[in-house]
Amino acid sequence: MKIVYFAWLREKTGRAEEELSPPDSVTDVLGLIEWLRSQGAGHVAAFADLGLVRVAVNQEYVALDYPVGPDDEVAFFPPVTGG
Amino acid sequence: MIRVQREDFDTGAELALLNADNHAVGGVAAFVGLVREMAGGEALTAMTLEHYPAMTEKALADIEAEAKRRWPLEASLIIHRHGTLEIGERIVLVATAAAHRRAAFEACQFLVDWLKTKAPFWKREETRDGHHWVDAHSADDAQAARWEGGKAGRRPTEFPRGYSKP
Q1: What are the chain A neighbours of B162 within 8 Å (beta carbons)?
Q2: Average pLDDT per run of 10 along chain B, which is 166 residues long?
Q3: In degrees, to the nearest 5, what angle opens at C-alpha B15 toward C-alphas B101 and B37?
Q4: Which residues, listed in sequence order, are joined to residue B93 by a DSSP beta bridge?
Q5: Cα distance from B85 to chain A (closest Cα, Å)?
Q6: Where residue A72 sits, what CATH number does that domain have?
């Protein structure tokens, strides 16, 4: 599974992207976030307030209960501020 | 048409192209977003725009398609820059061409409002003391929300059902 981070989530986790193999028990976005929190202090800080985190799976906005699998690209980022 | 690029653009030349070969166009409306020198009482030295390359063009194309469903546009253009920009530089150009002004004005405002809340760009303000990421404004959400429940069908929502918005 490819995980990508943008803006302050990238800075807090200390990485722009990572290729990970979560356990089979991870079936949706929320489960993935809970597992990522076990990956280090940076990840804990990045996911401290899920109200500030938006998620896209394969480049489409999704909710926290959206299913994820090994071939997915999952992106985490703050609310957008372009324009 | 959608363009995501690091380099600057020539506003006049881009607007002229919108109706160059189309005499059904009676009016062109445009919005140009610029880097302001001040933010929250603090002087900026520059602004950096990060984006999600794999998603950006698709998100902008979805927003443009939605505008074309709602208004009878002859043409539309979104150019959004990324990278580090100096004070006064152009960030974004949104332009719409239609037979009559009302469609051009409304569609242009719709595109800017939705782009600000749905396209995956993030602004980072650089100051002499460091940098900080711009927070999303609830006023921008409210502006974008005005266009919901329009003539359109499915909205490419950023906050799907069951998602708790801050």
Answers
A1: 63-65
A2: 98 96 96 94 95 96 97 98 98 98 97 96 95 90 85 44 42
A3: 100
A4: B32, B79
A5: 13
A6: 3.10.20.30
Alpha-carbon gap, residue A52 to B136, rounded angstroms:
10
Alpha-carbon gap: A44 to the closest alpha carbon of chain B (Å)? 19
B88-125 per-position pLDDT tens digit: 999 999 999 999 999 999 999 999 999 999 999 999 99
Average pLDDT of the residues in A3-17: 98
- Enter the ipTM: 0.95
* pTM score of the predicted model: 0.89
Q: Are the C-beta atoms of residues A78 and A9 closer than 8 Å to each other?
A: yes
Every domain of chain B and the residues it spans: 2-145
Say yes or no for a CB contact (<8 Å) between A77 and B52: yes
CATH superfamily membership of B2-145:
Molybdopterin biosynthesis MoaE subunit (3.90.1170.40)
pLDDT for position B39? 85
Check B123 against A81: CB less than 8 A apart.
yes
- Percent of chain B with pLDDT strictly greater than 70: 90
The answer to whether residue A10 is domain-embedded is yes
Provide the token pair at B20: 């160059």
Of A7, A61, A64, the CB nearest to B157: A61
